[in-house]
Amino acid sequence: SQELEQSPQSLIVQEGKNLTINCTSSKTLYGLYWYKQKYGEGLIFLMMLQKGGEEKSHEKITAKLDEKKQQSSLHITASQPSHAGIYLCGAPGVTTSGTYKYIFGTGTRLKVLA
Amino acid sequence: DAGVIQSPRHEVTEMGQEVTLRCKPISGHDYLFWYRQTMMRGLELLIYFNNNVPIDDSGMPEDRFSAKMPNASFSTLKIQPSEPRDSAVYFCASSPSPNQPQHFGDGTRLSIL
Questions:
Q1: A103 contacts B104? CB cut-off 8 A
Q2: Residues B107, A42: C-beta atoms closer than 8 Å
Q3: Based on C-alpha coordinates, what's the Rg of chain B?
Q4: Which of A6, A95, A113, B5 makes an SS bond possible with B24, Cβ 3.0 to 4.6 Å?
Q5: How far is B5 from chain A (nearest CA, A)?
């Protein structure tokens, strides 16, 4: 079965610093989603990447999809305390029985020091 | 627009009791998902529905867990009898189609004593 591995597992950065979170798939990626979760809340959808080489940005967050490497990266420029939370990648897939599956990465816990 | 609504937000109950979690998906979303999140196992898909029909329940831990979707605007996840290892945050999510992003509720934090 497909698995998504995120790195690093946790990250502490000083406000204003740039950072990158990676999501690596054990199988071919046909699309990838990035979510953010704050403690005690649900997941908030950030971005969806569907094609190899695709890059999307939202405010100071940029995500890229490298299909060959079966990997996606999430980059935050000039981090702020409001960026703190858990970032999760998710990918759609199909099981051997043909049903739809949706798996999530292990998550990266980000803390931004003011 | 109203998002996915879950209730209750918090539930504390004793081992052996029946627990029912509720979810109202976003109107017009044909897919509904139930997830469980723990520190050890992360976010796990338990079951999902398409047009009120259960499609894949392979993630349901055991027979103590059951889920229903009697209509397009309501779903329940039931645990009977509950055990301490069921303690987790349970999320409901919905999406208009399989390849569209899912919208998550705020979750139900369940503690079984």
A1: no
A2: yes
A3: 13
A4: B5
A5: 11
The reply to whether residue A100 touches residue B105, judged by beta carbons under 8 angstroms, is: no
**Nearest by CB to B98, which of A33, A41, A100?**
A100
Interchain proximity A99–B104, CB inside 8 Å:
no
Find residues 55-94 of chain B whose CB sits inside 8 Å of chain A.
Answer: 55-56, 58, 91, 93
Q: What is the pLDDT of residues A34-87, one digit of tens each?
A: 999 998 788 999 999 987 888 999 889 999 998 888 999 999 999 999 999 999
Burial A31-59 (b: 16+ CB within 10 A, else e): bbbbbbbeeeebbebbbbbeeeebeeeee
Residues contacting A90, CB < 8 A, separation 6+:
A4, A32, A33, A34, A35, A102, A103, A104, A105, B102
Per-residue model confidence as pLDDT tens digits over A73-105: 999 999 999 999 999 999 887 777 777 778 899
Name the residue type at position B14.
Answer: E
Give A33's DSSP letter: E
Q: Give the closest residue to B64 by CA, choosing from B77, B81, B76.
A: B81
Sequence-distant (6+) residues with CB within 8 A of B47 are: B33, B34, B54, B56, B57, B59, B60, B67, B77
